């Protein structure tokens, strides 16, 4: 069972707030209206802001600058380093790696290799499906 407590309603306070909002330049000021009048004047004088006219273009420029930053360059450098190091390791340990792989497959490791390949395939299919669903919803494709 839910019990909610209600704040007691003070009619005099409510009327003081309403008077301050309705007539900011009244001469006969009740002492409790003074603070409400200050709040009402502050609310009236606050600037009403809207996004600038070129807000969307500015955001697009910022995103383009971020995408053109150092991250893509570092990603390419790391990929190139990975390829070079992999080629070096393959040249040094290639025959031993093939022998170990063959022994692992003969010892029942092929089931684990198939399970890993299945996980990779399901992940790829799920990401493509999500990209298609998001794209069909009217948004930009993310995949």
From TrEMBL:
The chain crosses the membrane at residues 77-100, 112-134. Residues 1-33 are annotated as: Disordered. Residues 19-33 have a biased composition (Basic and acidic residues). The keyword Transmembrane helix applies. Keywords: Membrane, Transmembrane, Transmembrane helix. This is Uncharacterized protein. The lineage of its organism: Bacteria, Pseudomonadati, Pseudomonadota, Gammaproteobacteria, Lysobacterales.
